[in-house]
Amino acid sequence: RFQQVQSMMYDLMEWRSQLLSGTLPKDELKELKQKVTSKIDYGNKILELDLIVRDEDGNILDPDKTSVISLFHAHEEATNKITERIKEEMSKDQPDYASYSRMSSSPTHSLYVFVRNFVCRIGEDAELFMSLYDPQKLTIISENYLVRWGSRGFPKEIDMLNNLKVVFTDLGNKDLSRDKIYLVCQIVRVGRMDLKDSNSK
Predict the structure, then answer these.
(1) Is residue 148 one of the residues assigned to a domain?
(2) CA distances (Å), 179 to each of 84, 113, 134, 175, 183, in order?
(3) Inter-residue contact 200 to 124 (CB < 8 Å)
(4) Residues in the chain with pLDDT values less than 50
(5) pTM over 0.85
(6) Residue 90: what pLDDT?
(7) Which residue range forms the structural domain that includes residue 154?
(8) How remote is the C-alpha of 125 from its chain's centroid?
(9) What pLDDT score does 128 carry?
Protein backbone atom coordinates (compact mmCIF):
# COMPACT_ATOMS: atom_id res chain seq x y z
CA ARG A 1 0.00 0.00 0.00
CA PHE A 2 2.85 2.36 0.86
CA GLN A 3 4.56 1.80 -2.51
CA GLN A 4 1.21 2.28 -4.26
CA VAL A 5 0.61 5.65 -2.54
CA GLN A 6 4.26 6.64 -3.04
CA SER A 7 3.94 6.06 -6.78
CA MET A 8 0.78 8.19 -6.91
CA MET A 9 2.42 10.99 -4.92
CA TYR A 10 5.34 11.06 -7.39
CA ASP A 11 2.84 11.36 -10.24
CA LEU A 12 0.98 14.19 -8.49
CA MET A 13 4.21 16.08 -7.73
CA GLU A 14 5.31 15.83 -11.35
CA TRP A 15 1.91 16.95 -12.68
CA ARG A 16 1.79 19.81 -10.15
CA SER A 17 5.11 21.15 -11.42
CA GLN A 18 3.75 20.96 -14.99
CA LEU A 19 0.62 22.89 -13.97
CA LEU A 20 2.70 25.56 -12.21
CA SER A 21 5.06 25.93 -15.16
CA GLY A 22 2.35 27.79 -17.13
CA THR A 23 3.62 26.39 -20.43
CA LEU A 24 0.79 23.96 -21.23
CA PRO A 25 -1.82 24.74 -23.93
CA LYS A 26 -5.41 25.15 -22.72
CA ASP A 27 -6.63 21.73 -23.89
CA GLU A 28 -3.64 19.92 -22.32
CA LEU A 29 -4.11 21.92 -19.12
CA LYS A 30 -7.74 20.77 -18.85
CA GLU A 31 -6.77 17.17 -19.56
CA LEU A 32 -4.00 17.25 -16.95
CA LYS A 33 -6.34 18.73 -14.31
CA GLN A 34 -8.77 15.85 -14.94
CA LYS A 35 -5.92 13.35 -14.54
CA VAL A 36 -4.94 14.99 -11.24
CA THR A 37 -8.47 14.93 -9.79
CA SER A 38 -8.95 11.35 -10.99
CA LYS A 39 -5.71 10.29 -9.29
CA ILE A 40 -6.70 12.07 -6.04
CA ASP A 41 -10.15 10.41 -6.02
CA TYR A 42 -8.58 7.02 -6.70
CA GLY A 43 -6.08 7.54 -3.86
CA ASN A 44 -8.85 8.54 -1.45
CA LYS A 45 -10.73 5.36 -2.36
CA ILE A 46 -7.88 2.93 -1.73
CA LEU A 47 -7.10 4.73 1.55
CA GLU A 48 -10.80 4.40 2.52
CA LEU A 49 -11.28 8.16 2.78
CA ASP A 50 -14.41 10.12 1.85
CA LEU A 51 -15.50 10.19 -1.79
CA ILE A 52 -15.45 13.69 -3.27
CA VAL A 53 -17.95 14.33 -6.06
CA ARG A 54 -17.01 16.74 -8.84
CA ASP A 55 -18.48 18.34 -11.94
CA GLU A 56 -17.19 17.79 -15.48
CA ASP A 57 -14.39 20.35 -14.98
CA GLY A 58 -13.15 18.60 -11.83
CA ASN A 59 -14.49 21.23 -9.41
CA ILE A 60 -15.97 19.99 -6.13
CA LEU A 61 -19.78 20.12 -6.12
CA ASP A 62 -21.30 22.44 -3.52
CA PRO A 63 -23.94 20.43 -1.57
CA ASP A 64 -25.77 23.66 -0.70
CA LYS A 65 -26.26 24.52 -4.38
CA THR A 66 -26.74 21.01 -5.80
CA SER A 67 -29.93 18.97 -5.51
CA VAL A 68 -29.92 15.67 -3.60
CA ILE A 69 -30.74 13.68 -6.76
CA SER A 70 -27.91 15.34 -8.69
CA LEU A 71 -25.51 14.57 -5.84
CA PHE A 72 -26.68 10.94 -5.78
CA HIS A 73 -26.09 10.55 -9.53
CA ALA A 74 -22.69 12.23 -9.20
CA HIS A 75 -21.78 9.81 -6.38
CA GLU A 76 -22.89 6.85 -8.49
CA GLU A 77 -20.91 8.04 -11.50
CA ALA A 78 -17.78 8.76 -9.44
CA THR A 79 -17.97 5.35 -7.73
CA ASN A 80 -18.28 3.56 -11.09
CA LYS A 81 -15.32 5.45 -12.54
CA ILE A 82 -13.14 4.68 -9.51
CA THR A 83 -14.17 1.00 -9.52
CA GLU A 84 -13.17 0.74 -13.19
CA ARG A 85 -9.90 2.49 -12.41
CA ILE A 86 -9.12 0.03 -9.60
CA LYS A 87 -9.70 -2.90 -11.99
CA GLU A 88 -7.36 -1.27 -14.53
CA GLU A 89 -4.66 -0.69 -11.94
CA MET A 90 -4.92 -4.27 -10.64
CA SER A 91 -4.59 -5.65 -14.16
CA LYS A 92 -1.35 -3.74 -14.72
CA ASP A 93 1.84 -5.56 -13.86
CA GLN A 94 4.25 -2.71 -13.17
CA PRO A 95 7.84 -3.41 -12.01
CA ASP A 96 8.94 -2.04 -8.65
CA TYR A 97 11.42 0.41 -10.19
CA ALA A 98 8.68 2.23 -12.17
CA SER A 99 8.02 4.82 -9.46
CA TYR A 100 11.73 5.55 -9.04
CA SER A 101 12.28 5.98 -12.77
CA ARG A 102 9.33 8.40 -12.87
CA MET A 103 10.82 10.37 -10.00
CA SER A 104 14.23 10.55 -11.65
CA SER A 105 12.67 11.90 -14.85
CA SER A 106 10.59 14.45 -12.96
CA PRO A 107 11.40 18.08 -13.82
CA THR A 108 11.09 19.14 -10.17
CA HIS A 109 14.23 20.16 -8.26
CA SER A 110 14.81 21.57 -4.78
CA LEU A 111 17.43 23.71 -3.05
CA TYR A 112 18.26 22.99 0.60
CA VAL A 113 19.61 25.88 2.70
CA PHE A 114 20.93 25.56 6.26
CA VAL A 115 21.54 28.88 8.07
CA ARG A 116 24.37 28.32 10.54
CA ASN A 117 25.01 31.88 11.72
CA PHE A 118 24.37 35.55 11.01
CA VAL A 119 27.09 38.08 11.89
CA CYS A 120 26.23 41.74 11.44
CA ARG A 121 26.54 44.46 14.09
CA ILE A 122 23.07 45.95 14.06
CA GLY A 123 22.53 46.54 17.77
CA GLU A 124 18.84 45.62 17.62
CA ASP A 125 16.60 42.79 16.51
CA ALA A 126 16.59 41.92 12.81
CA GLU A 127 14.53 39.95 10.34
CA LEU A 128 16.30 38.06 7.55
CA PHE A 129 14.35 37.37 4.37
CA MET A 130 15.97 34.77 2.09
CA SER A 131 14.79 34.18 -1.46
CA LEU A 132 15.97 33.08 -4.90
CA TYR A 133 16.56 35.90 -7.39
CA ASP A 134 17.06 36.03 -11.16
CA PRO A 135 19.51 38.92 -11.84
CA GLN A 136 18.75 39.05 -15.57
CA LYS A 137 14.99 39.39 -15.21
CA LEU A 138 15.40 41.39 -11.97
CA THR A 139 12.74 39.32 -10.25
CA ILE A 140 12.39 37.09 -7.19
CA ILE A 141 11.48 33.54 -8.24
CA SER A 142 10.60 32.02 -4.87
CA GLU A 143 8.78 32.74 -1.63
CA ASN A 144 10.68 34.32 1.29
CA TYR A 145 12.16 32.32 4.15
CA LEU A 146 12.00 34.41 7.34
CA VAL A 147 14.48 34.18 10.22
CA ARG A 148 14.04 36.43 13.27
CA TRP A 149 17.44 37.28 14.77
CA GLY A 150 17.86 38.82 18.22
CA SER A 151 20.10 41.74 19.17
CA ARG A 152 22.36 39.45 21.24
CA GLY A 153 23.44 37.44 18.19
CA PHE A 154 21.07 34.49 18.53
CA PRO A 155 17.79 33.52 16.83
CA LYS A 156 14.71 34.98 18.56
CA GLU A 157 13.34 31.43 18.92
CA ILE A 158 16.34 30.03 20.79
CA ASP A 159 15.13 26.45 20.27
CA MET A 160 15.68 27.02 16.52
CA LEU A 161 19.43 27.43 17.06
CA ASN A 162 21.28 25.07 14.65
CA ASN A 163 17.92 24.16 13.16
CA LEU A 164 17.30 27.00 10.68
CA LYS A 165 16.65 24.98 7.53
CA VAL A 166 14.57 25.64 4.43
CA VAL A 167 13.92 23.83 1.15
CA PHE A 168 13.06 25.89 -1.92
CA THR A 169 10.91 23.49 -3.95
CA ASP A 170 9.30 23.26 -7.41
CA LEU A 171 12.38 24.41 -9.31
CA GLY A 172 11.95 23.10 -12.85
CA ASN A 173 14.27 22.66 -15.81
CA LYS A 174 13.34 26.22 -16.78
CA ASP A 175 14.91 27.47 -13.54
CA LEU A 176 18.06 25.37 -14.01
CA SER A 177 18.51 26.81 -17.49
CA ARG A 178 18.68 30.38 -16.13
CA ASP A 179 22.09 32.01 -16.60
CA LYS A 180 22.40 32.78 -12.87
CA ILE A 181 20.32 32.37 -9.73
CA TYR A 182 21.27 34.29 -6.59
CA LEU A 183 20.35 33.43 -3.03
CA VAL A 184 19.50 36.91 -1.71
CA CYS A 185 19.25 37.79 1.99
CA GLN A 186 17.44 41.03 2.84
CA ILE A 187 18.11 42.36 6.36
CA VAL A 188 15.43 44.41 8.08
CA ARG A 189 16.31 46.11 11.37
CA VAL A 190 13.44 46.08 13.86
CA GLY A 191 13.68 48.98 16.26
CA ARG A 192 14.27 52.76 16.42
CA MET A 193 14.20 54.86 13.26
CA ASP A 194 17.62 56.22 14.27
CA LEU A 195 20.03 54.24 16.44
CA LYS A 196 21.11 57.43 18.24
CA ASP A 197 17.52 58.20 19.20
CA SER A 198 16.84 57.82 22.95
CA ASN A 199 13.30 56.61 22.20
CA SER A 200 13.48 52.79 22.22
CA LYS A 201 10.24 52.15 20.28
Answers:
(1) yes
(2) 47, 20, 8, 9, 14
(3) no
(4) 93
(5) no
(6) 66
(7) 109-189
(8) 30
(9) 92
What is the domain count for the chain?
A: 2
CA distance 58 to 38: 8
d(CA 18, CA 11): 11
Q: How far is CA 18 from CA 29, 37, 89, in A?
A: 9, 15, 23
pLDDT at 186: 93
Beta-carbon contacts of residue 99 (< 8 Å; ≥ 6 apart): 3, 6, 7, 10
Instruction: Determine contact, residues 143/90, Cβ cutoff 8 Å.
Output: no
Distance of CA 23 to the CA centre of its chain: 18
Q: Do residues 150 and 89 share a domain?
A: no
pLDDT digits (tens, 9 = 90+) for 36-92: 888 888 888 778 787 777 777 667 777 788 888 888 888 788 777 777 777 776 666
Amino acid identity, position 67:
S
- Which residues lie closer than 8 Å to 185 by C-beta, 6 or more apart? 128, 129, 130
pLDDT at residue 129, as a whole number:
93
Is position 15 within any domain?
yes
Last residue of a domain, one of 69, 93, 117: 93
Supply the CATH number for residue 25's domain.
1.20.1270.350
